[in-house]
Amino acid sequence: xxxxxxxxxxxxxxxxxxxxxxxxxxxxxxxxxxxxxxxxxxxxxxxxxxxxxxxxxxxxxxxxxxxxxxxxxxxxxxxxxxxxxxxxxxxxxxxxxxxxxxxxxxxxxxxxxxxxxxxxxxxxxxxxxxxxxxxxxxxxxxxxxxxxxxxxxxxxxxxxxxxxxxxxxxxxxxxxxxxxxxxxxxxxxxxxxxxxxxxxxxxxxxxxxxxxxxxxxxxxxxxxxxxxxxxxxxxxxxxxxxxxxxxxxxxxxxxxxxxxxxxxxxxxxxxxxxxxxxxxxxxxxxxxxxxxxxxxxxxxxxxxxxxxxxxxxxxxxxxxxxxxxxxxxxxxxxxxxxxxxxxxxxxxxxxxxxxxxxxxxxxxxxxxxxxxxxxxxxxxxxxxxxxxxxxxxxxxxxxxxxxxxxxxxxxxxxxxxxxxxxxxxxxxxxxxxxxxxxxxxxxxxxxxxxxxxxxxxxxxxxxxxxxxxxxxxxxxxxxxxxxxxxxxxxxxxxxxxxxxxxxxxxxxxxxxxxxxxxxxxxxxx
Length: 525
Hints:
- The chain has 525 residues and is of the alpha/beta class.
- It has 17 helices and 22 strands.
- The strands form seven sheets. A five-stranded parallel sheet has the order 3-2-1-7-20, covered by helices on one side. Strands 9-18-10-11-14 form a five-stranded parallel sheet.
- It starts with a strand and ends with a helix.
C-alpha cells in the first residue's frame, strides 16, 4: 500500500516510521529543505511554514516529549532548547533511516478523492517540485496530514485608532529575536505561552514592556517540588486517578492553592476569573520575577490606539513604539479538496479522535495528525495517532461507523465546553493522560497495570506513579519494543542526573523525586 505523508515535522517523522513499520510504501512531501517543522528555527521560513523564536525552550520535559522507542540521551537538558530538540529529531530520523522517504522542497498542492474512492478509498495527490517547478500527481492508498496548526496568524478585530498608530504592529508569528526592540516601549497583547515568553525576553533589553490581557492566566512553573519536571509529577496515572475520584472543584482548589503558593496571582495582576483546569495554563518560569522587578507591567486589555500611544481599559495611557499581538493561530486544510473536505469554523472542527473525518468513515484512509492542544507534549500523541491510523489502514484496527463517530465527537465537544472557558484556543483541547490511554486501547497497546503489580512490581510502580512516558506503549501490542522496560526504569536516572553536573559529597546525597516515598509524592503532587 502507498501512503502519503504531508510534512516532515514533529508529527510527520513518526508518521513515516509508523507507515514503514506496517510495510507500506511511504512518500513524505516537505515544502522546506529540512526536517523539524516549526521546531527548526529559521530567520526566513517559507510561506505557510512556522518557526519557533531563537530562544524558545520546550515547555514539556524530554522524557514526556520523546517518541516511544527512542529515549533522548541522558545528557540532554530536561527542558531542551529548540536547537537541542532539533538534534533529537535528526537522531531519530537517522536511527530509523527516515530521510530516504522524504522529498524535500516538494509542496503538496491538493489532496482529493479518486474517482473510484467509494470502492477503493484512494487519494489523488498533486505536488510541485519547488526547484524544477514540475508538477506531478500520484495515487495513494492512505494520507496523513501533518502540517501543524501554528502557521496562520489570528488577529482580533482592530481596536479603535489602530490604523492611525504610527508605531510598529506585528504578530508573534513574525518575531524571531530581540534585535530592533532595544530601548523600545513595547506592548504584548495576549498571555499565552508565546506572550509570556516574549514579555520575559523583551523585558531584558526593552525600555518598558506592558502585558495586555483580557482574562489573566494561571502560570505553571516548569519545575515542581524537589526540582522535578512538572509534567512528570502531575501527568501520571496516580494523579489522574485522584482527579477522577475527587470533584473537579476540589481539584481546581488544590491546584490554585499550589500555584498561588509559588506566586500570588492576584497580587501580581495575573489572577483570571476561571479556575486552573478550565483553561490552558501558561508555562513560564520567569514572568512573576520580571513583574516583581518592574520590567513587565501587567495591564488590562487595550481600549484604543493613539498615534504614538495605547489607551488601556483602565484609562491609563502609555507611549508605545511597538505592539506585538500574541493572539494565537487559526487552522484550516486548504489542500484537502479546497478546504471543503474538512470544514473549520473559528477553529472548530469535527474529527473522530481529533483525527478522522466522520464523513469518510467508510474507508478511514485519511487522517489529520497533531491537531490537538494537550496539557502536555504533542509529540507522543502525534506518534500514537499515526499508530492508530496505520493500524486501521492495515486492517488491524476496526473503527466505528459514521454515526458512532459523530456521537463520539459530540460527546467530547459537550464535555470540553462544560469544562473549559469558551475560547477558540480550547476547541482541540485534550487531557494528555486520558487521550493517550484512549488511543492506546484502540491499538491494544495499553499496558496491563494490574498484571504487572503481580509479575513486575518494580515496573508497575513506574507505570502508576511516574509520568506517563510514551515508552510504556511499546511494552505490549503491535510493534512492541524490547527496550521499553529498560527505558522506563532508567527514566528517573536520566532526569535526575541531567542537572547534577557538579558532583560533590553534598550533591551526591540528594535524592530524586521518585525515590521519596510514593504516598508522599502523591500528596505533594
